[in-house]
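Retro notes - structure team

What went well: the batch runner handled both jobs without manual restarts.
What didn't: labels got mixed up in the shared folder, which is why I'm recording both outputs here explicitly, each with its sequence directly above its tokens.

Job 1
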Amino acid sequence: MSLTGLFSIGVSGVTAFTTSLEAVSNNIANSQTVGFKRARTDFAHLVTTASSQSEGRAGAGVGAVNRQLIAEQGAVTRTETKTNAAISGAGFFVVSETAEGANGIAPYLFTRAGDFAPNAAGDLVNGADYYLQGYPLGANGEAGAAQSLSALETININRTPPLPDGAADPGALAGVSLTADGRLVASYANGESYALYRIPVALFTNDNGLVEASATAFL
């Protein structure tokens, strides 16, 4: 092997170490970021192609690539905010970058960051300012038949409650909470409670095939 080849092998080792260091540094920096998925560095031997003068292949250094462990279950943390949510197991929250939803302009995004809280307009947004999407419920507490992405809308706690026929005005909003099956329930001044939305969980056959967007969200 030539001196140039030996030098290239050394450079590949330094490059691989730098790649690994980037992953470790990013993991540490985001260890307290809600919904963050850590990265792992995979290393592989590099070899030259076999030549006519030599049987087999000669070593050519090492390569490294960082892979984000999207499908890995993160820690679930208790909070005092009743609109915070977490998914135990597979799945992602469906979110949008705007209050208008995808609306044909930008695609829906998917995240595990469930630190949702109402903004000034009453929309539920997480710490990365993504708007939570859900299915509006009717007076029977159920969503419509067409439960597809096109039927989603941004969850807003100030939505007019779906009152049964003959029900009296419930008065001012007193509070909201989430049920274990993903329903946003609002309680009102007259003591009545109504389910406003159902939060879907998006499932994929290959979570690790998702593409990182930004701020703990994926495409």
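Job 2
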Amino acid sequence: MLTTEDMIEKCHRFCNSEVVELNTDSLIGFFQVFRPDGLALAGLFDHLDIGDQLHQRLDRLYAACGDDRRPDGRRDAYFVIRRPSAIDPDKASDLASGWLERLSVLAKRVGDDDLAASLNPAPKIRVLEGLPPKHPKADEEKSRLLRCLQDQASVLLDRIQPTPAAAAALRSAYYFVACDPMLRDYLMWPFYAAAREDDDAEPVADPFEPYFQLWLHGVKYRIFGEDQVDLYLPRQTA
């Protein structure tokens, strides 16, 4: 079985880069190397039973973002959807409700009672259109709900132990796909779902699939209170 260090070395071989240090940060930008389609990643997870699932999720990412070339000739540092397709507001609301409900279930399962309590009762969902305002930067200006989502939900998968070696190796690489912990955890969910197979409890539905659907459509969430999540849909032009 590959160790974390073995997986880091394997990734460097895939992108023909020199291994200077066997640390996870050395893989930041790894997935960007294989744009636009990610086809050269074939075989990266061939030692894992969940390899096909991991590749399917990456395929969806590459298909959505495609080439990293900007109209001005420069390249995107991250995976960006330039022209998200429209989404019905009711559909967006349903997806957000599913995302938060499943997060609450997972939080209870891994013992994060504080996060579970912040999501129960479920926050109201309000759907808006246009550019979202920025969240407050200072912790004292943030609502408890926002702090829980940013600080606790973003590390929820870390509480599922033991961490698979490949997941430990690639966590930074997955995060810097778009600097979005929820997108990272969507792409990495098969690692952790498999790690829970020995758990006698009923399987938890993927909490990050609904979030990924929102991300595909360019939807951003904002939280400024304790009981409401605002969704901002990209403004549609004729």
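One thing worth noting from job 2: Residues 2 and 46 are 11 Å apart (CA to CA).
We'll revisit the folder naming next retro.
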